[in-house]
Amino acid sequence: MEHNNTEKHGGSYTTLVLVWIGLLALTSITVTVAGISLGQYTLFVALLIAAVKSGFVINIFMHIKFEEPIFKVFIAVSGITLFVIFLLTFFDFIYR
Amino acid sequence: MASNIEATISIEQQAHRDDVGARMGMWLFLFTEILLFGGMFLIYAVYRYQYPDQFHLAGMELNTGIGTLNTIILLTSSLTMALSIAAIQKKNKALSIIMLSSTLLFALLFMVNKFFEWSAKISHGIFPGSKELLEKQNGEILFFGLYYVMTGLHAFHIIIGIVILTFMLVFLIRNKITSDNYVKLENSGLYWHLVDLIWIFLFPLFYLIQ
Amino acid sequence: MINEAANPGEKSFYQVSTNKHTGILSWLLTVDHKRIGIMYLIAILSFFLVGVVIGLFMRWELMFPGKTIMEAQTYNTLFTLHGVIMIFLFIIPGLPAIFGNFFLPIQLGAKDVAFPRLNLLSFYIYVIGAILVLVSLFLPGGPIDTGWTFYIPYSIRTSTNVSMAIFAAFILGFSSILTGINFVTTVHRLRAPGMTWFRMPLFVWSTYATAWIQIIATPVIGITILLVIIERAFGVGIFDPALGGDPILFQHLFWIYSHPAVYIMILPAMGVVSEIIPTFSRRTIFGYKQIAYSSLAIAFVGYLVWAHHMFTSGMSDTSRWIFSLLTFIVALPSGVKIFNWVATMYKGSIDPQVPFLWVMSFIFLFSIGGLTGLVVGALATDVHLHDTYFVVAHFHYVMFGGTGTIFFAALHYWFPKMFGKMYNKRFAVISVVLFFIGFNMLYFPKFILGYMGMPRRYYDYLPEFASLQLVSTIGSWILAGAIFFVVGYLIHALYKGKKATANPWGGVTLEWHIASPPPMENFHEIPTITHEPYDFSQLKEMKYGE
Question: Are residues A18 and A52 in the same domain?
């Protein structure tokens, strides 16, 4: 239906700019943190920040927040698949 | 049932165009990209697990400054891309064109940076198959192999993105993309954000091993 | 319910061009899903026959110990080509690209797939991939000799045309991905009014599950292949053990795709079985939802078992038992399906027509294939049987006895609908019987040979294997004879066959409500669905019979 096609979704200019500022802030945090030695947590923190950043990009820039629920299910399916592939592969390399 | 209603909607759209369907197809394509890079991230993870110290050593040789700069460039290009779509939704064609052009500009800037970064590495004799690289330890050889392949494939996606966005710019100027038919621009935007998304993970994994 | 069959003067999709061209261009540039399906049928069937001929030559060579007709290197090339052609050019695209393209939109009550132009693109990508395979045979360096698994390190050391051949596989992967994207979107967006998820025919369900595997798994082999090409071309260290790489990691990545690919092959076949059995039992399918869900379950669990191909590769003991355990779980949803099919027939009014006979043959062969799968899925026995003829026999029973048989079942089931002609049923019955005999003669001895220790991919063998090898070769002639016979009488039926009615079998899914062959846009107006998919009470309102 026409309504469905021209439906406006996506944030206002302000939201987008705010998200961008947030992303830049997270980038500076991750660069700074990398300089501090956190031992085994360094990688974990870096990946956590990357995950938060991608959450912003996917939800706001890529409009998933405003998309039909099935899109979220799709993303979950591919995310879970990727996770399972990593997990099962590492059963080999961790216990070798 | 909700699916009943959904079915009714979908059939009425058949006669018209189906923007939700177009975006759905695009997202499905993006999943293939995610899994494509996912395979490489898996290889990276395994080798980093096997050679943690040598990955650390090799990572120190990369230029964090240039990596950070490129991160900022890509994030900003993502913003301008999103703004371009928001502008066309709000019927502001001029702003949309300006924003899309800036996205293209940032993309080119990214490639220029990448060029200097790679040239510097190559002039230091670090490139696949080089004598200097082969004298290093196995973990470092693998690190640089993955560095070239992963950032290279990412750069290849940027180049494709530049081509696509150029077409979109032309469509926008010629009114092939309008405020009530902009799904092409949206889908190109989705692709562009995905390229950004991948870089968000490449950046800490290669440039921030301190 | 609609009944558009009675419309005598109507033009079929063969007679109406979708574009401004006529003749051959109206086919080559068409975006109609039915025409694209027919083009796939011609291309895929041709490659299948090429694969069959290569297989015949391999069997000929193995008829007697020692050299029979060819050199060892030629044999290495032939078994690689047989694998590459059968896997990438026949069995992976086979059912989805031909019958999925043709019938998925019709069974959903849609006029076409969601992205018709993408559909045509995907066909041409398939053609380009196929041409690349052929070109790689004639370039200097010689045809690829690695086996279809392209294992590292041999595939980066051999001087044959590995890069070109695997690049072809990469291209073919694209074609598969695009088909998958198209089908998932079609199922979500183009269902007719009233066509709820649980009114979709089971062929649609299984094709939908398949499409997801095509989307999610194919990129993994894509990147793996790309990395091998890059490694060969630029000497980048990725998998090469000389540069610190891990060849077992290559095997992981290869099977992360190639095991789910097995389900790309078998799931649509299971869907076809779920169509044919209710039609010829005149009874609604037993456990509709269980079959639908088990398709999704197979698609998902199929991701969790890839490393059972690698029990003897040197991976960790922990992952060996984990993958062995997970492998047994896959048997469950497949078992659910077999049970439900058999239960559907119970107290049904069985009409043993040709497609039904193919399905019976399938259930027998696939059960052997499935059960021997448990034998090689068990860790301890696999160590003994790995890389022997037992494995070869197992996967031929599953792939050829499963999907291959169903390819013929689907062809016989839908042939009257696709072409509007009926084939000679007596010939068809003879061909099923010959196929079944030839198949078991060809592959069953391989179980015994494998158990006795005959390794796969060997050019020569010990004298004690000679008699069974001979039986196997004779079986290959019977099997190939049956296949060429089928192709022969089907082509004959195209020209001389009796005209088929709209519903020769008494099916009730949507494709049997429209004319044979279907009109250009399938339905004059989009139907409204009011029945369950296998509700045979509709038959009273429909005309059927020859």
Answer: yes
